[in-house]
Amino acid sequence: MSDRASSLTRLYERLTGDEDSRLCKDIPDAACHEQPGNFLRHLLASLGNKLADELSSARLVLPWLLGALGAPVWMVGFLVPVREAGALLPQVFVAGYIRLKAIRKGVWVTGGIVQALAALVMAIMALFGQGAWGGAIVLAALVVLSLGRGLSSIATKDVLGKTISKQRRGTLMGWSGSAAGAITLAVGAVLMLFGDRPGQIALSILLLIATLGWALNALLASRIKEEPGATEGGMNVWSSLGEGLRLLRTDRHFLHFNMARALLLSSALALPYIALLGQQQSGSNLGGLGIMILVSGLAGMLASPIWGKLADRSSRKVMRDSAVIAALCCATTALIAWLPGAWSDSVWPYALVYALLVIAHAGVRLGRKAYVIDMAGSDKRALYVALSNTFTGILMLLVGGLLGAIAHFTGSAGLLLVLALCALGAAASSQRLPEVEM
């Protein structure tokens, strides 16, 4: 073994706590031999992706960008649904196509490049865009970015399942979340120094860093050592959709998981409303944005490795516990909003609860990703991931409009109480899911 390979193996064993890097549970021997190097490539690729996601967040950064451009307020309402649904809806239509490919990392690389180019357009708009036309181009770029994200999402999980063994995947996702959180923490601290300046140049720099993050993601994905997989059973678009609907009817385990995941959307949907309450206390300045990014990065840095280790033992329990925390965060924020002005007229109470909800949301995301990857066999993994994501994308569009109507009549605080009840339902549903890590 070369010195470089020995160093990679030692680093891998240190990160995973694995005394024998060649012990693999559900991947071929050839993939097992490459696991230490692939683990680190996955880690750095995921770091680039997570950092880019944070710095182009539809829940924080892009609303500030549209405000700086002077775009119409109604455009802000489209950011989260477009970002999420645009990434999730098309996935069932590409699952069969990916299944036809023995090597799937090329789809991942393509998705990374598409996201990098879309973020570059947004960075240019931060410098030169104005008003409605600038906002429209940002939204159009977000649609393209979301489609690229959808390609990467399904391919990443499929390649991860082929190259990294069970009970190592959660650890991998946890370390990448922690590293990205640390970098995001530094970015938030720098933004706080800008105080009440609008800073379109700073926003452009953030989006340029996001561009580089996705470029790094694509580069490292191309260097993963992936063994050819089976191509039997590949389907066209309509066959994939038909098979997906059949699975929802016949596979009760898969249907139950998707019901739990639907209720777990409450954590994602609550984040922008808590941020909105915080923004109302700080205006659209970069200082307030910096505080939100700072607490988000700190929360992600601390939470992800812990959730990752716990997910390797039981991703079902991670989903359950994070849903309980999300419910408490939603209820607490509603209470703060109804308190006298001395308590509610500062961004900090909302920022602190936002940080706790980011911790919960990290658990939701990591738990359900680990669960669906471990639940599906290697021959069905791409289809399970794609169908689950498409189902969630449809719900995101439908529920997004419904929640907007609820918020119109009850205010953000009233809506957060509704989301707290949904999160409690998610916890109860997750508790009844069977274990898949055995």
TrEMBL record:
This is Major Facilitator Superfamily protein. InterPro entries: MFS, MFS_trans_sf, Sugar_transport-like. It comes from the Bacteria. The keyword Transmembrane applies. Pfam families: MFS_1. The chain crosses the membrane at residues 61-80, 107-127, 133-151, 172-195, 201-220, 254-276, 288-310, 322-341, 347-364, 384-403, 409-428. Keywords: Membrane, Transmembrane, Transmembrane helix. GO terms for molecular function: transmembrane transporter activity.
